[in-house]
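Lecture notes, unit on protein representations.

Consider one protein chain, 167 amino acids long.
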Amino acid sequence: MLESNKLVIFLDHANIWHILQKYNLRIDYKRLKELIGKNYNFVDAIAYLGFPEWQAAKKIRFLKSLTRAGWYFVFKSVITILNGVLVQNSVVQVMLTHITEIVDTYDKLVIVSGNARFVQLIKPLQKKVEIWSFKECISKEIIRSVGSERIKYLDYLILNGNSIIKL
């Protein structure tokens, strides 16, 4: 175990949001951070969120609750109009850039997402990375790249009584 034992959690909110909507669930983000970081001396948690700017005012309460739960957040407007055409901006690209910039500051990284775009980042980092995701939204590329021993399924946490769900 490393002496500093520092962990950073990167949450791709869009990746898990679809599952939350599908099953009408709400995550207890404080509990999620505690569960992921339970064996670490220092934990940073950053949630990456993307939504249209016009919805920002509706998200204030949610963003405040994230902050109260100990999370930083990075907002990216996901829809812009460029020359009269709607363009979706990628929150994942922002995450990839941030992870690359700060990877050496931490002993371990947890990515809460199953998005295949993280494979390019995961391969060189190998044992330094864990993936936490719902089984339904994790890509086969992530599973092959990381290996099953470094994947934690949020579904199983819920089924085994480690509730991260708010009722």
